Amino acid sequence: MQSFKGWPSAALAWFSELEKNNNREWFQANRQTYDEAVRGPLEALLAEVHDEFGDGKVFRPNRDTRFSADKTPYKLQIYAVLHQPGRGGWYVQLRKEGLFAGGGLYDPDRERLAAVRSAIAEDDTGPKLEEVVTKMEAEGLELMEYGALKTAPRGYPADHPRIHLLRLPHLAAGVFHPAGDWLHTVEAKQRVVEAWRSVTPLLEWLAETAGPPATTPGEL
Q1: Which parts of 123-207 are beta strand (E)?
Q2: Degrees to nearest 5, angle at CA 43 with 40 and 44
Q3: 93 pLDDT band (50/70/90 cuts)?
Q4: What is the pLDDT of residues 109-148, one digit of tens each?
Q5: Of 12, 176, 178, 182, which sees the most CB atoms within 10 A?
Q6: Distances in Å between the alpha carbon of 114 and those of 27, 88, 130?
Q7: Strand arrangement, sheet containing 57-58
Q8: CB–CB of 148/168 below 8 Å?
Q9: Where are the beta strands (DSSP E) in 27-139?
Q10: For the stretch 89-104, what's the b/e string if a residue is b when 16 or more beta carbons lie within 10 angstroms of its beta carbon?
């Protein structure tokens, strides 16, 4: 296994070219660059952080086009999830625009989401989450608010003191770093590790308060 030295500039160039040539013929002709410049460094990074964060899974480059109007076969990003049963997981994604790292619980099933909202609402567990979120935001992470409800979820008052958290369909956070020269160095690993350490208290809160693990691991 190679040591992690960052992603070479060839990785970002590969994504740019894939965007223009998203077809099987181009992908197969350029598979070696994907393996060596895109996937290889990510696998090396996961191997180096294993002792602290555990096993990670790199997802396939193929898109699931069965229910999509977009039939292009390949994703324009590569990503990995390090799933932690009962508390979501850590996540990292590389695309031509830059690097995203974070974690939490994304798109939980209805039962798990109900358990999370109950823990948010309770006065013996909710305030701790507010502290966790405040600290994460001070360290540069942002809550994922995509898909947040415009009103209170059923069963909760609109004036609940933590209504901004109750409206979230996910409980995850992360930070996006635009591409720069740092991406081609070991600093890329440092930024990922910093984000994962910042989001770890959120994962711990989920494990302690929000019931059994989701039926499938959430992706950020």
Answers
A1: 142-143, 171-178
A2: 85
A3: very high
A4: 899 999 999 999 999 999 999 999 999 999 999 999 999 9
A5: 12
A6: 42, 15, 18
A7: 57-58, 77-84, 88-95, 98-105, 171-178, 142-143
A8: yes
A9: 57-58, 77-84, 88-95, 98-105
A10: bbbbbbbbeebbbbbb
From its phi and psi, is residue 6 left (phi > 0), alpha (psi between -120 and 50) or beta? Answer: left
Tell me if residue 187 falls in helix, strand or coil: helix
3-state secondary structure of 176: strand
Cβ–Cβ under 8 Å, residues 22 and 73: yes
Instruction: For the chain, give the percent of residues with pLDDT over 70.
Output: 95
CA distance 151 to 166: 10
Maximal CA-CA distance, the chain: 57
Has this prediction a pTM greater than 0.90?
Answer: yes
Q: Domain 9-209 falls in which CATH fold?
A: BirA Bifunctional Protein; domain 2 (3.30.930)
- Each residue's pLDDT tens digit, 19-52: 999 999 999 999 999 999 999 999 999 999 999 9
Cα distance between residue 187 and residue 179, in whole Å: 12
Amino acid sitting at position 179: A
pLDDT tens-digit series, residues 62-88: 999 998 898 999 999 999 999 977 678
